[in-house]
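Hey all, sorry for the wall of text incoming. These are the two entities for the joint prediction.
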Amino acid sequence: MLVDFLFELRKEGLKVASHEWLALAEAMELGLHDSSLDGFYRLARTVCVKDVADYDAFDRAFARYFQGVTEAALALTKDLEAWLADPGALRELTDEQIATLRRLGLEELRALYEQRLREQKERHDGGNRWIGTGGTSPFGNHGKNPTGLRVGPGGARSAMAVAGERRFAAYRRDVVLDVRQIDVALRGLRRLGREGAEDELDLDDTVAATCANAGDLELVWRPPRRNRVKVILLMDVGGSMDPHAELASRLFTAASRAGRFAKFRSYYFHNCVYEHVYEDAHFTKRVAVADLITHSDKDEKLVLLGDALMHPAELLDPGGSYSYALGSRTPGVEWLRRLANHFRRTAWLNPEPDRYWAGSTIEVIAALFPMWQLTLDGLAGAVRYLTRGGPRPTVPNPTAWAKAAGG
Amino acid sequence: MAFDQFTGTDTYIASDELRHSVNVAVALGRPLLVRGEPGTGKTLLAENLARALDLPLLRWHVKSTTKAKDGLYVYDTVARLHDSRFGDGDVKDVSRYIKLGPLGEALAADSRRVLLIDEIDKADLEFPNDLLLELDAMRFRIDETGREVVARERPIVIITSNNEKELPDAFLRRCVFHYIEFPNRELMARIVRVHHPDLTDKVLDQCLEVFFGLRATPKLRKRPTTSELIDWICALQKAGVDLGRIGGGIPFLGTLLKTEQDVELLGKRAKA
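and here's what came out:
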């Protein structure tokens, strides 16, 4: 039964394997689970989950899996009580029954049974919300403690209640992030190389050279290791990006931190890239995109941040720019294509949730630039792609429209 | 050996869940990896665990330049060279120049030790991988002398991490993990009580009100944590600020907020 639980955890994307299974089995043999479901919840989480970002996944798997088991255990308990009432019948236990008994133990069965009884009571007076659906608190409406049912000594909360409550949802990896988290994610974006003045003592080579020199000191110097990655950040500002301004500024803060990249340049655009991008967010200092392309090495990493959401005409029509004064003749999509074609690795970070991508201009742009949602996972994916390459992400539920429009 | 060995100490209040995780780690003989917001008492856990179990504590503070081998032993070649040149002591005996690191000491000790590996994520990415075998088998070999060190009793290993880097899966697999949640108000009151026993209920309540209010302020870059709250109350007491009447501005804001943007933000909110 434990094996099934571990597979349930794997279904939620937790990396549990035989190592964890053995540890869990060993711990249960030592009685660390306290012979109760609550104890088991704590034990299993401690042993199987290695990152707070996965606590929520664990909670969901636990709630789903043990919902069924408590019911099964009730049936087992009834059988058990019948056997206990008639000890003589025990001799006729099938092998399977004996195995079950050995596996569970009376205490644990009792604990499960009690758990089940509690559950029954609540179901009768509280409506059918034992395991949180859509994030509703499981015990919200039966007027006890608003944060959940208290059971057992020391005010320990029932495991199912904790699991159902999903307190750790905020730590999930697929949610938006703060500067520190972005900082950490961007650390992956590096390619170290030795360049510049030789001002670091190379200890190993010094030892070797000294030995070769029959013991007279021979110092060997080398240039320090530096990150050689160059980054160009293009940011969409204003209009539909306003709700995401705070998030965009966090990304900018983390990316522009001194010494992070060998070279870091950032430009702004509004809605879509046309002839020009701007050095400042007030659009006063223009830089021609053609110049930007000629002055950039194709190995520089181009990162775009924007919602990629606009009227299709703004992207696809010649002169579709938001400002007629610019008199644009080339459609935005063409400028984007030129950028995408020039750089070897590009990434588009989109603050819009990816379930809304299909069927809008986002889909057209995602065909040009590999696009990730701006979450911890998305950012990590983008960083991985920029440094190591690999498959491009796909838009969920693609539509035919975008293909026709972009092609 | 009893399971519930660790129940916190008189100066360290551990939540039920933390106590449980510690006891699981001790019983299974696996390292306990502790994560949590800065200032939630990750490092203090090891000190107090050692105190509660009455075992000696060894600390290994990891830095960005730390190598895994440093924790096991260091071969002091310079001292040996010095001795050979200036004729001091027996240079032939290499073992004299082997200095055990904290992990090495914990394994070589003849009784159980508590070992704190602090901020493991500060070191190089490969650092945790280099420790896999030693933490698993609790043994290592000193190449220079051929001595094999095997732990008589598995040390209790507490590892803290601030999430600066992803730790490798193979390393995580060998650990027991606990995330120290930020204490709720009830637990926080108990924690503050331990450090400031003479605080009256009313004052404590007001301090917590201000503190949790501050933490709930949206868009703060660094939210104040337990250690900052304790410092703040300490500053209030030392300066003799009437704790019963902290209204209006917050005195000694610098102990709670650590970036000028946050102070600015709070100022703006207070005006509005």
